[in-house]
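Pilot study result, target chain (144 residues):
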Amino acid sequence: MKKFFIIFLFLCVSAISAMARDFNVTVAVRADSDEMSQQVENYLLGELSQLKDVRISQNGDWSIRVMVLENKVPEGSEKSYTLSAVITSESKCTVINTQGKTVSAQECDRFENFGVFAGTKTNLKDMCEELIADFDANNLDPLR
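Predicted structure:
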């Protein structure tokens, strides 16, 4: 009975440790203007901060790279923007020669997902919310 209890305790601790995993995420935004870049970055960081197991870091295991461009619209029309995002994860890349032997192994970025969103300046926050919701559902949830 004592062995059973110790094994059960070990399994519970292992399960709790696995559930307590934190995801380190890096966010990089480029835009036509510094103001737009900062605004989009703030929206993204605000959404990520609501995810309890996500930590923002300079060198994260996950990277969200976003480019924001102002669209050309007819004069007098409301400005519109296109937000393009690429999500990568840090991975180990291995180069194998023709004999099947490992030549080198190094850290690299692995493509995970992408998204393109379009809308007016008032839609930027909604676009960022949708981007982070997609990232959470498609990339992080399966690992939780």
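One observation from the pilot: DSSP finds three helices and five strands in the chain. A full batch analysis is planned for the follow-on phase.
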